[in-house]
Design brief:
The protein is mainly beta. The protein has a single domain, classed as Beta Barrel (Thrombin, subunit H), CATH 2.40.10.220. The chain is built from no helices and 6 strands. The protein has a 6-stranded antiparallel beta barrel. A hairpin with a 2-residue loop joins β5 and β6.
Length: about 120
């Protein structure tokens, strides 16, 4: 029996760990600042805070964004997208599913389709 040696056909490529997240749709790069209303619990009370986030990407199921302060996973957000051209402004509800510390702030991931009144 002859001995067959194995050889690497394709070079090893470092794979981004985020590739294996359970995304349902492709993300599209997005650049812009939007206003958000964040609802959360603090000391047993429901509180709200208005702030701005910088969008990184968007898909039909959620967004990726940067913010200056940490956002608790499970917090509900209402994102207020500004009006462009003849179209009116659009508000969309989502829930924060990820918050990671980065050099320039905090990177959050949020999933669309959340009814904030039910939370």
């Amino acid at each position: 029996m002859s001995q067959i040696s194995l050889k690497l056909v394709n070079p090893i490529v470092e794979i981004d760990a985020l590739l294996f997240e359970r995304r349902r749709d492709a993300r599209r790069p997005m650049d812009g600042r939007v206003t958000v209303l964040r609802r959360f619990r603090k000391e047993g009370e429901h509180r709200s805070k208005i702030s701005a986030i910088d969008l990184l990407d968007i898909s039909s199921t959620g967004i990726g964004a940067l913010t200056n302060e940490p956002v608790e996973v499970g917090s509900d957000l209402t994102i207020m997208f500004p009006a462009h051209g003849p179209d009116g402004a659009c508000d969309s509800s989502c829930r924060v599913v990820r918050c990671l510390k980065r050099e320039n702030g905090y990177e959050i991931g949020a999933r669309f389709g959340v009814n904030p009144s039910a939370a």
